[in-house]
Amino acid sequence: MQPLQEKATVTDVAKYKIAILPGDGIGRDVMDAARIVLRRLRLDAEYLEGDIGWEFWRSEGDPLPQRTLRMLEQTDVCLMGAITSKPNYEAQLELDPRLRGGGYEYYSPIVRLRQEFNLHTNIRPCKSYRGNPLNYREGIDIVVFRENTEGLYSGVEFHPLPQELKAWLLEHHQKMRRFESTPADEIAVSMRIMTKKACNKILTGAFEYARKRNYRTVTVVEKPNILRETGGLMLREAREVAKRYPEIRLQEKNIDAVCMWLLKNPLEYSVLVAENLFGDIVSDLCAQLIGGLGFAPSGNIGDDYAVFEPVHGSAPKYAGQYRANPLAMILSVMMMLEYLGEYSLARDVEKAVADVIAEGKVRTYDMGGSSSTLEMANAVADKISTQSKKA
Ligand code: GGG
Q: I need a labelling partner for 2 at 20 to 30 A (CA). Which of 74, 163, 253, 381 fits?
C-alpha cells in the first residue's frame, strides 16, 4: 500500500492528526481500502499508525500497548480496523512462553480503549442503501445508541467467587441462598454495573440525535421486568430524559421482544438506545437487516475523542485475502468526517457508496459478486472523483 501521507495544503502543519489502528485479520484489509478513499478525498491530515491487537498480546502481554495510548493522545481522532479478541483462558495459552506466569491478564483492547478515553456513546447506523441485493427491506434507517463503558461489559468479574464476597452476598441477598453450597470455584460472576450518569448520557445523546435528524421515535431496549435494578434505572432515566423532547415518542421494549419486532416491522424503528451488551446484540441484528456486517459502521464517541470502526470483527480466516466488504469501514470514514465537521466530504463519501451499491457493477463476495476489497474501495474513490469534477 502507498503511504497515506499526502499533504493537500501548502503549510507544514496538517489540519488534523488521525490515528490509524489497522488491528488484526481483515481489519488490515479494510483499512487499506479506507486509505484509498482517504487519499482520494485529499483530506488535510497527518496519519499516525499504531499497534493494537492479538500479535501484541502474544509478544508483549498487552494488546493495547502504552505507546499506542500515548500516540492516540496526540491525535484528534482514530480510525480502527478490527481486532481479534478471545476469552482470557484461551489468550493465556497463546502468550509467548517467556511471559507466562507473569501476571498478564487479557482484556479486549477495544473495550479498554472505550473505557480509557471515556468513549461513552457508540453510534451504529444501519441504513438499507437502495439496490443492495442483501437488503431485508428497502427504506430501513435505524441508528443504535449503545452505552459503551459500563453495563455487562464493565469488566468487573470474578472466578472463583472470593469467599468474602460470597459471604457478604449470602448475608445481604436472599436469592444468593441457592448458591450457598456451590463451591466458589464453580461460580463465575460478571457484574452489570450501570450508573444514572451514563444512562442519562446515552439517552440524552439518542434524543438529541433524533431531534437533530428529525426521527420521530426513540426506543429504549431493556429488560426491566427481570433485571429490575439495572433495567429499572435505565427505564426511569429514559422517562425523565424523554420529558425534554415532547416531539419525540419514547417506546419501551424488552430486548427479546424487540429482536422479534425488528424482524417483523423494521420500518417502525428509528433510534434505539441500549446498555452495552444489549446494544451490541441488537446492532448485529439491525446490521443483518441492511445486508450484514459489511454495511455497518460505528463511532465510539466521547467528550474529547472518538474512535471510528466497522462493527464487524477481524474474521481471521479471511485475513489478507482482500475478500471482505470494505463499505462498513468506508462508512466509518464518513462518520469520522462528520465528527470532524467535514460535512461536505462526508456527504461525498456516502453518495459515492450509495451510487456504487445502486449501480451493482462492483460487488464483494457477501453481495454475490467477486470484486475484491480494494476494487470496491477504488469504485467508491472513483465515484468521489466523478462527483467532485461535476461540482
Ligand atoms: N459481532 C460483530 C463482532 O464480532 N464485532 C467485534 C466485536 O465484538 N467487538 C467488540 C465490541 O464491539 O464490543
A: 74
Contact 348/384 with Cβ under 8 angstroms?
yes
pLDDT, mean over the chain: 96
| CB atoms closer than 10 angstroms to residue 72 | 22
Beta strands across the sheet bearing 77-82: 45-49, 16-23, 77-82, 306-310, 297-301, 121-127, 141-147, 271-274, 217-222, 249-254
Residue with cell 478525498: 41
Q: Which residues line ligand 1 (CB under 6 A)?
A: 110-111, 280, 284, 293, 311-313
Query: Which amino acid, one-letter code, is at 142?
Result: I
> Which positions of the chain have pLDDT values less than 70?
1-11
Q: What is the CATH number of domain 1-117+305-391?
A: 3.40.718.10
| CB environment 111-127: b (16+ within 10 A), e (fewer) | bbbbbbbebbbbbbbbb
155 Ramachandran zone, left/alpha/beta (phi>0; psi -120 to 50)? left
Give yes or no for a contact between 220 and 251, defined as CB atoms under 8 angstroms apart.
yes
pLDDT of residue 9: 52
CA distance 211 to 213: 6
User: What residues are paired with 305 via a beta bridge?
Assistant: none
For 122-153+194-296, which CATH superfamily applies? Isopropylmalate Dehydrogenase (3.40.718.10)
Mutate which of 106, 149, 153, 280 for ligand 1 pocket (most atoms within 8 A of beta carbon): 280
Q: Which residue bears the cell 428497502?
A: 138
